[in-house]
């Protein structure tokens, strides 16, 4: 009896129960704030959920946001497995979109869609990777911290895009700093168009074929991290760089590879936005998806399945939150951001706050049957 | 019994008719990313529609967008909910208004700062270059050093249009004047960075500037503060900001977005909504400069005469102010 040790939590409790409890806690605190501004929290929750799933159009928007979060979440996760914190997803996505835009602007009238698509995918990946290459090199070979360099590269990306859009790419004789709209054959088909080919009528939403590519990326990341030699080396470097070095792994090369793939994944946000939704290069289409990807990855425990679920949650928050601001005048958009912040706080920063209590609970539940056995 | 039932039924029908009539006019406004309290452009619209609300007692639907995709979503939702007219703010909402206006041909739309060529859209644009020209004249005349400054917000064509008009006005009043220009930044945060605005202004003062014009949204607050601290002149923008620092606010260049927004709701409520172009320049009173009790001591009779003359000449077509956005150039 006395030698009994505290067992670790079962896996399902760690990956499912704790995040769920965290979300409920966050919603509870958010509910208190809703009460404080004099609204009914249950009505707000209902609007949030219905606004995210209640009708065809809302579901499309939710999944459209989800697509972006999957890309940026995966990007953060791949780097995280090598113990690198890539917070430059914002800039990489922005430049990835630039790559897609340049390819499509150059070739949209010339090549058919089936040739443009792989080119656009490659351009997004290449530009995203290129944008992270300098910080990656500085991290691997010069020891500059990746957090600092990637966030600085975000700003360089903003300025570069602004210069390009205002002075170079902007279509002549128009107000907005935007490129011209791509020809029709360079549009990623919208989901309602794809479903239309099969005779299914749905509402028009920004959801487009990029969602399929996001699923492909999830599978790719899973295979890469857990089923390839490179993935093994990457995780080894992440766990213990000295040990990896001792085992003959060139950790500097691994840093470059991990960040390169991370940048490419972030770049696909640019594909979803530029090729899928807006059909032109424009300012600020990234809108914080890169930073939200950090929360998504943390919440998803850096695993593709978890990232898909966390992306869905943030998709719900984005779309349902907009719906809240629309339906209830007392809800400003800042309030919606506050709810998102609470979820990030509880699920990211305070991930393990409840863990000791849950462990204690499991411990109690486990030790209960023992006295009963004795009696028998 | 029957009679009572009948009366109740009739009352219900009448009530339904009455509520349908009251529901006919449901205005809506979609603010852009700056938010309705940006101390500038969106807030001007907010003031206009609030004035309408308090005068007419009609509530309006509103939404503040937070990302690119929400613009179209919000405008479409307004139209779906039967809002009419739907007012969009800022050039960035142009494509969204165009798309939704095609989908809802029976709904009226209006957009400020952009031209959307649809039969059910009113496009309201301002000749900011004309208003900027006038404050440029005042700046050059008030300057003792012969150097005037411009601090822009985000570096976009619209702000260059302000800068270009300002420079032309300054050169018009004094051909030898030197115009020093700075943009605060290239991201939307440049609209709300008073610290950087103050830094840029101090830098311009160090180079000899003694009158500075800010077209920078919330960033302008820092510009005006820096001017007040240094005892130099600053010029406000969009709304009348003379009251912020009486004594150092030379004037404000007015862009009456509040009036434009109010007029859209007002004319719609009277059933007099007119689609098409609505260009508001000096002649239409859509732009101008502010003269009130806070700055009347700063504007000499000579300055007032010169600026009135310039205004009359622009309206009469004797002075043509180069519009940066017509050809992306500022060669006057």
Automatic annotation (TrEMBL), chain A:
CDD domains: TM_PBP1_transp_TpRbsC_like
Membrane topology: Multi-pass membrane protein
Compartment annotation: Cell membrane
Main subcellular location: membrane
Top-level taxon in the UniProt lineage: Bacteria
Keyword Membrane: yes
Organism: Aestuariispira insulae
Protein's recorded name: Nucleoside ABC transporter membrane protein
UniProt keyword Mitochondrion, yes or no: no
GO cellular component terms listed in the entry, alphabetical order: plasma membrane
Residues spanning the membrane: 12-37, 63-84, 91-107, 113-134, 146-166, 207-226, 254-275, 281-300, 307-329, 335-354
UniProt KW keywords: Cell membrane, Membrane, Transmembrane, Transmembrane helix
GO molecular function: transmembrane transporter activity
From TrEMBL, chain B:
All copies of domain ABC transporter substrate-binding protein PnrA-like, residue ranges: 28-321
Coiled-coil blocks: none
4Fe-4S listed as a keyword: no
Location, primary (coarse class): membrane
TM ranges: none
Pfam families: Bmp (PF02608)
Keywords: Cell membrane, Lipoprotein, Membrane, Signal
Gene Ontology cellular component list: plasma membrane
Subcellular location: Cell membrane
Signal peptide: 1-22
Membrane topology: Lipid-anchor
Similarity-based family: Belongs to the BMP lipoprotein family.
Protein name, as recorded: Nucleoside-binding protein
Species annotation: Aestuariispira insulae
